[in-house]
Amino acid sequence: MGGNLAGLFQLDPGWAFLNHGSYGACPRVVFEAYQGWQRALERQPVAFLEPSRGHTERLRAVRQAVAAEVGAQAEDLVGVSNATEGLNIAAQSLPLRPGDEVLTSDHEYGALEKTWAHVCRRAGARVVTVEVPLPMVSADAFAAAIISGMTPRTRVLFLSHVTSATALVFPLAQVVTEARARGIITVIDGAHGPGLIPLALDALGADFYAGNCHKWWMAPKGAGFLHVRREMQAGVVPLLISHGWTETAEEPGPFGNSPFVDRLEMQGTRDPSAWLSVPEALRFRREQGWARVALDCAALAQAVAAQVRGSSGLPALSSTAFCAPQMVAMPVPDRDVVALKGYLEGLGVEVPCYRWRGRCIVRVSVQGYNDRADLERLVAGLGGFFGW
Fold it and tell me: How many structural domains is the chain composed of?
């Protein structure tokens, strides 16, 4: 790992880029495929975008490739620009009423906290936040904490699969099953899921699951998906009403797909190049043997986390069983996180530094273009700032 794979990417070699988790990074060959789709679009925009001239089939092929990777059916998912868009579609499609509750955890992504606050305010509902006990060492303890927040008013359960701020993998199976038994709709933020952890969406059974393709699958920015359980699809309303819209879910889709797919997939003039490039990103991962690469990355991430713990004396947020494989949120001593980030940037280290629930966190993401020298630069920078 390291030098050889770094050459397959377009990142500035002057930086130790340890923030793959925020926006991902696209390999050269995938980016070239992306630009190829853009050139094909511009050569004949009408022929490229008209559903009857092959566009429907191209989009369907991507859905089939994505579905095969995430353990789902192609008819149950659609492409969106990112997970936040997909989750907004889910949240704004739900018929919340005054007094309803949306149950969530204290580890959720800020943009989605704002989404649910807005949706609940408009409906007269409210968000109920459960504190997940830390350190996280037990699936049963996690489930107990979430289930304790369920009441007869709970209408929606919203959780991350992999948390952004704390880089934890939430064990969802038990709480999704319990929510289903209670008639609670489950909405899962899978922004970090695809390519980072194994997915089996049909088996999980969540009502809504949105994921990004640009993060750990390394597709171009602007590619994500929304998966919706078949029984929930009739109530899904896109953020834009356009050519794919049907007034009822019983009408056939105008472009040869289900109403669910056509409603969300055909929404006016959009550049589909990022979505069309997802199969190339998946091919790149297979050809490079990314399962092995990911294991090497996880080992590096855990090694640097252990080293930082040894210097800081601060405990981990979870056992390794619940830590995202290639991404670790590392508590550091209480300092000015803006100053810390600026100090590390001055050393050519790109890594998120932020405050979460009273803790100062440095979140390191390790991808196949990283090597041990990148991690050593980070550790040296932390030592220089904190005086270790």
Answer: 2
pLDDT band at 267, cuts 50/70/90? confident
* 361 strand-pairing partners: 331, 354
The answer on pLDDT for 182 being more than 90 is: yes
H, E, C per residue of 269-287: CCCCHHHHCHHHHHHHHHH
Pair (52, 175) in one structural domain: yes
Calculate the alpha carbon distances from 159 to 24, 25, 116, 198 in Å: 22, 25, 12, 17
Give residue-wise pLDDT tens across range 215-250. 999 999 999 999 999 999 999 999 988 888 888 878
Number of other CB atoms surrounding residue 44 within 10 Å: 11
Q: What is the pLDDT of residue 243?
A: 86
C-alpha torsion angle, residues 49, 53, 54, 56 (rounded to 10):
60
User: What residue numbers bound the domain in which 277 lies?
Assistant: 44-283
pTM: 0.96
- Which residue in the block uniquely carries the two structure tokens 């790992």? 1
Q: How many residues in total does the chain contain?
A: 388
209-244 burial code (b ≥16 CB/10 A, e <16): bbbbbbbbbbbbbbbbbbbbbeebbeebebeeeeeb
Model pLDDT for residues 279-289, shown as the tens digit of each residue: 999 999 999 99
Same domain, 154 and 215: yes
DSSP code of 335?
Answer: -
With respect to residue 33, please indicate whether it lies within any of the assigned structural domains: no
